C-alpha cells in the first residue's frame, strides 16, 4: 500500500550539503596526521589492529583521491527526509517503488555503519524490473539512520537504545502510512528487526536478518552453548569465541567509557578512519583484503558521514545505552522470519536454528558482516525470495 500524503505530517525534505569549510578542515586534519611509529619485526596484518601502512594508504586516498562531492550527489539522488519522534530528529531515506503492489520494507543498519551501506540495493529492491528482476518482488524502501548515527543527530538526550529506537521506527512507518510492513537488518539492525516482530506481530509481515560466522563468537555468552555439538563443531565454535575475544575491545570500551574514545574519534579523522576501517577488514570475507571486500569509495563515504556529523561519539553512546538497558538483543516472535548467513558454516544452522523454526535459512559461503556492500546481489535475491511467499 502506497502512503497517503495526508498521513505524512511533520516530515521535512532533507538534502546533504556539507559546508566547504568542513571539507577543508577534514583535508587539513588528514594532511597533519601523526602516524604511530611501527616497531621492527611487528606483523603487517590486522592481528594487532590497523597496520600503519594500510592506514597511511587509506589516509592518502581520502585526502587526495576520494571525491566527497560526487558521493554526496549520489546519496542525494535518493529522496531523504527528517522528522521528529520522541523529541529526536530522525533522518531517513524513503524510495517508493513504481510498482503499485510493492511491499513496504524497513531496513535498519548496524555499527559501524550508516544508511550509505545500502546504496547498491535500493534500486534493485524498489524497481526490480529495471534491474533484471520480477516486478512482483518490488518494495517501497524506508532506511532510517539510527538515533545518534549520521544525520539522526544531535541526540536529544540520553536513553536512545534498541527498545526506544524500535518504537521510533514503528512510529515512522505509521507516519508514512505503512500500517503493515516488512523488516530487514543486520548487527544492531537485526536487533531492531527482531524486536519489531516480537512487539508488533499484527503490523510486521515478516522479519529478515543477515548474519555471518562471527555470530558464533557469542555462543556461551549471549547464546547458550548447545550440548549436541560434535568435537569438530565445538572446535569451530571455540575458534570463533577466541576471535570475538580479540575483537570485542571496541565494544567493551564504548559500552562502558564512550566519552573517552569519543574525544579521539571527534578530533582525529585518521583515528575515526582506523576505528571503523579495521572492523570492515576483520568482519568481511576473510579470504579478501579490505580493498577487495568492499568498495573503497563506499567505505570512505560511510566513514565521512561519521566524521562530518561527529557521530563517532553519539554512536558510541548508543552502545553504552544498549549495554545498560534491560533489553534482550534477541526477541523471539511468531511472525515469519528468515536468516541469510554469509561466510557461513554448517554449525551455524545447528546452533541458531536446531529445530528448523526459521523456515527460510540461507547459507552463503561468500560475504561477511556487510553483505549489502560485499554481496549486494546475493542479499537482494535472498530478501526477495523470503518475502515472495508472504505477499498477499
Defining key terms:
single chain, 392 residues, alpha/beta, Rossmann fold, 9-stranded mixed β-sheet, 16 helices, 9 strands
Strand-helix topology:
Elements: E1 11-14, H1 20-31, H2 52-64, H3 68-76, E2 80-85, E3 88-95, E4 103-108, H4 119-126, E5 139-144, H5 162-175, E6 181-186, H6 188-199, E7 204-212, H7 231-247, H8 249-256, H9 258-267, H10 269-282, H11 290-293, H12 296-309, H13 311-323, E8 337-342, H14 346-352, E9 360-364, H15 371-374, H16 376-388
Parallel strand pairs: 4-5, 4-6, 6-7, 7-8, 8-9
Antiparallel strand pairs: 1-2, 2-3, 3-5
Helix pairs in contact: 1-2, 4-16, 5-6, 8-9, 8-13, 9-10, 9-13, 10-12
Instruction: Quickly count the helices.
Output: 16
Class derived from helix and strand content: alpha/beta
Largest sheet: 9 strands, mixed
User: From the coordinates shown, what is the CATH architecture?
Assistant: 3-Layer(aba) Sandwich
Give the strand order, joined by hyphens, for the main sheet.
1-2-3-5-4-6-7-8-9
Highest CATH level, the class: Alpha Beta
In total, the number of strands is 9
| Fraction of residues in β-strands | 5-15%
| Average pLDDT rating | 94
Count of folded domains: 1
The helical percent reads: 40-55%
One letter per element, helices H and strands E, the order comes to: EHHHEEEHEHEHEHHHHHHHEHEHH
CA-atom Rg in angstroms: 20 Å
Query: How far is the N terminus from the C terminus?
Result: 11 Å
What's the shape? globular
CATH topology descriptor: Rossmann fold
Poorly predicted runs of 5 or more residues: 1-7
Supply the CATH superfamily name: Alpha/Beta hydrolase fold, catalytic domain
